[in-house]
Amino acid sequence: MAARNSLTPQQGLGFFGLLILLCSAVLGKSQMCEVETGQTNIILDIEESRESYVFKRIGSPSHPHRIKERKEKHSTPVGTTIFRNIQALDKDAGVNGLVEYFIAEGSPNSTNVEKYSADGYGTFAISFPHQGQVTVAKTLDFEKIQTYYLTIVASDRARNTADRLSSTTTLTVNIADSNDLDPSFIYSGCVSLDGACINPEYSASVPAGSLLGVLTVLPERIQAVDLDTINSPIRYSFASGMPGNYADYFQIDESTGVLKQTKAVDTSTAKKYDIIVKAEEVSPGPQRFTTAKLEIFVKPVDANPPVISSSQAEGYVDENSPIGTRVLDAHGNPISFMTTDADLSDSDPKPDYIYELTTPSFNVTGDGVLVVNEENLDRDPPAPGRFKFQVVAREPRTNAASAPLSLTVHLRDVNDNAPKLAMVAPISITAGDQSESRLVTQVTATDNDEGPMPW
């Protein structure tokens, strides 16, 4: 050790609060480190052995070796000893030369520089101060903290505690990930917790009697990942399914998760397959896995067009009715439509048929009821007062359409017109005796509303 200012041994012993700065060095080389003592500057020549540093402290216990790093799996149980080689030397005699070890709380700023790092105070412990063995005091979690910095203090045991001298060093503990998390299926839009999709579900469909090969899966292709940083490969398989013959028709690639149809299936065999997909980590030790639900629908062959029918062929509605007013039959019931398809059984899901009309004045609602679709529908002449049109039901998936159905809607009269008087030409009358009433002229009025005039 060389000093910028010459020091006597007595001066060296006076540096009661000497701080040792531990410097990283390239393996096999020496590095000069400047340490601020508060009274003078001292240059320490730190000689490095493999993952250890040699340094000395004047007048207090010194650590002859400093371990640069320790790596522990985060599955290491509480109470496990992770480091046994802490050793400090004190040249004093008697109790002044006895050394005990403990972990001190580090500076708050010292562990905030790196992400996922923390002070190791409280997470690790030295249960027996005279031995200096570092043990795990709390459960380690790699996903939260990956590096701990332990400030280890070596103190002599001078009878007067005010006279006790100490030295510090830092032990870096790197937490290694362990295989403690199940894999997870992932796709956009899923409900997730800590990066894992909750109750993942997939679906696909095949037409009856056809062989498609690779199937399109919704919402995305089947894919699972290892949530640990170990990033183990995933093996896919079918865990179970209903009906029990699902494996005769479908298979999943164990490496890619690609879903394939291997045999044509008919609706007489099954209309839907419910399969549990298993994603398992390929790793030593316990085989962690997760599952997802897969529904495969068998769609019937579209051999028959839909057939449309209505509750009545004639309907009635008041003229000038607002948009959305229901058209009623002669008994006051709404005109409604029903569509059937011979390709579908009673248990098959019914498609949402699209109803197309040859008039813009009316429309069919989602629940199949005929309603007014235009304002100011007029019954009075010269308007015809009734509408004849046709309705077609179309299946959205196949675009198959029914035969057209004819309907007639009559507009009921509403008293919305005032009587109109015709122009009366000038007349001349002879002056004379007014004792008797005489007809001068005949005045007439007309009304476009339905029904006789009230006079």
Automatic annotation (TrEMBL):
SUPFAM superfamilies: Cadherin-like. This is GD21473. The keyword Phosphoprotein does not apply. Residues 1-28 form the signal peptide. Pfam families: Cadherin. The lineage of its organism: Eukaryota, Metazoa, Ecdysozoa, Arthropoda, Hexapoda. GO terms for cellular component: brush border membrane; endosome; microvillus. It comes from Drosophila simulans. SMART domains: CA (SM00112). It is a single-pass membrane protein. CDD domains: Cadherin_repeat. GO terms for biological process: apical protein localization; calcium-mediated signaling; follicle cell microvillus organization; homophilic cell adhesion via plasma membrane adhesion molecules; mucosal immune response; positive regulation of clathrin-dependent endocytosis; regulation of follicle cell microvillus length; sensory perception of sound. PROSITE patterns: CADHERIN_1, CADHERIN_2. GO terms for molecular function: calcium ion binding; myosin binding. Residues 75-185, 198-308, 309-421 form the Cadherin domain. Keywords: Calcium, Glycoprotein, Membrane, Repeat, Signal, Transmembrane, Transmembrane helix. It is found in: Membrane.
